[in-house]
Amino acid sequence: MPHTVVFSDQAPAPIGPYSQAIQAGNTIYVSGQIALDAQSGQLVGNGEVTEETHQVMRNLQAVLDAAGFTLRDVVKCSIFVKDLGNFGIINEIYGTYFPADYAPARETVEVSRLPKDVQVEISCIAVK
């Protein structure tokens, strides 16, 4: 199946050899987003998980928007956290973007380190 690279200038440019997202048919696979500001390329939140999580969600929205998708189209998220002790905060913020009536499937995994030493990274898959 042919696929299309998706790019949004409203989300941070990739910091490695990958695409922000790939669309294949009616499915989009969004790469893990971290709390980088699209315009400055700088980290947002100074290591504070609340601000980082909001920025990550805004970045996911921007990439989805570029392909004509919305958060309502998301069917699966993967959340990677540096400290699972922050799960409650991340989960609360995440829930403001994904109300219970259309919350996607997901997993949350604690990892030893994330790019740029951020606290949280989230990727998603969406289907129209």
Automatic annotation (TrEMBL):
InterPro entries: RidA, RutC-like_sf, YjgF/YER057c/UK114
Pfam families: Ribonuc_L-PSP
Taxonomy, superkingdom: Bacteria
Family stated for the protein in its record: Belongs to the RutC family.
NCBIfam families: Rid family detoxifying hydrolase
Protein's name according to its UniProt entry: RidA family protein
Species this chain originates from: Hymenobacter tibetensis
